[in-house]
Specification:
The structure is a homodimer of 211-residue chains. Chain A is elongated, with a radius of gyration of 19 Å. Chain A is mostly helical. The first copy, chain A, folds into two domains: 53 residues, Orthogonal Bundle (Arc Repressor Mutant, subunit A); 145 residues, Orthogonal Bundle (Tetracycline Repressor, domain 2), CATH 1.10.357.10. Chain A has ten helices and no strands. In chain A, α1 crosses α4, α4 runs parallel beside α7 and α8 runs antiparallel to α10. Chains A and B meet through α6, α7, α8, α9 and α10 of A and α6, α7, α8, α9 and α10 of B. Chain A binds a DNA duplex (18 and 18 nucleotides) through α3.
DNA sequence: GTCTATAACCGGATAGAC
DNA sequence: GTCTATCCGGTTATAGAC
């Protein structure tokens, strides 16, 4: 009755998810047809609607499978850093869970979803990101007590921007840099850049509010 | 024989360009139909192919109209800053031309194109961005003589990421921030953040090469 | 230059056999 | 659970009248 258990690597459902992840990442939701996906996954067209109801809920499932573990790892890393984290620890907790092996195939997709306004962005934001944003906003406040609330918001936003840009354009980075790209090296560069950005001098003339 | 001269605001061609800019920005290229555009522009469906040959070349025209002046303004600002610009002057030359009134309607579209790998990104990159990247890479080198070549590349990439993120998500920013957003304020926050990021300590253990 | 009409095709979804 | 066959609406593009 129940098909392959979750996480099994070659069931029909999983093959569909993998193919969908690939095409949605490469060509976007509207640029991908269910026929692209079923051909790649070598399953019948009707299997998609049987297992996932619709193209849109298939996309939801694809995103869900990857975003949840990333955010869990982020929270764990913040917890591990304790109540007085350094700026570098906060930044690292934010970005490094996206630079690990097992989310690698989903990187273009995640980058695309987080880079563009869409029905999916809004759903992901409400379901998964709001809590992450609040948690990281608090962590930044703990690591930079003098930074006003509004500037914290913007700097978090800019940080997310640099990160999603790297993810979304990871496929064309070799074209731009003219040389092969090492994931670990990018991560270190990114943490350095973002940490310095977060530590920028406070702009507001009045910085009364610390929380 | 010749229709409205370029720049005229109510010719058929211009109305198509404006409507296309709006929809391509809101829903993306694949998510927009020519019927969306012709309905909005109140022109006949066939007018698009008559004036722009195809949907794809229409998109090229929409992008071209906005990117060129932005890059021209960037170059002018770099020129005005002279041979020894400050970091702030370089950053401001990079981002501020996108925060002016007359590119405002194109902001979501530009954000989208620069945020996602696509046929358009690659074309825009080769035709418009390579030269800008090289010029700004030199300007950063002039403002930060100790920064190695590779780190310059990455920091420029991260800077572009923060900026395109702000552009692409400008439509949903009120949702995220919970309050209305002032363009000028965002620009100042962005320049502050990015300037500090560019000035981050050098990472490479060997920083022999200055150029 | 602008219209109507239509060609030619592709999309997501589903009914129903097995 | 998985298949074939098909419905049906929407898509770009063009031919040809005006």
């Amino acid at each position: 009755m129940i098909s392959a258990p979750q996480g099994t690597q070659s069931g029909t459902k999983t093959r569909i998810l993998n193919a969908a992840e690939k095409f949605f990442g490469e060509k976007g939701f509207d640029g991908t047809s269910l026929r692209d996906i079923t051909t790649e996954a070598q399953v019948n067209l009707a299997a998609v609607n049987y297992h996932f109801q619709s193209k849109e809920t298939l996309m939801d499932a694809v995103i869900e499978r990857r975003i949840a573990p990333v955010n869990q790892r982020r929270m764990e890393m913040l917890d591990a850093a304790g109540p007085s984290p350094t700026v570098e620890q906060v930044v690292e907790a934010f970005v490094s869970p996206l630079f690990v092996m097992d989310v690698l195939p989903a990187v273009p997709l995640i980058g695309r979803v987080l880079s563009n306004p869409s029905q999916f962005f809004e759903r992901v934001y409400k379901k998964h990101l709001i809590q992450v944003v609040l948690r990281f906003s608090d962590a930044i406040a703990a690591s930079l007590p003098g930074l006003p609330r509004e500037e914290r918001f913007w700097r978090l936003h800019f940080m997310a921007g640099s990160m999603t840009h790297v993810l979304a354009l990871s496929g064309v980075l070799p074209l731009m840099s003219g040389q092969p790209v090492q994931r670990g090296a990018v991560l270190r560069q990114l943490v350095t850049f973002l940490s310095a950005g977060l530590r920028a001098p406070v702009l507001s003339p009045f910085s009364e509010d610390k929380k």
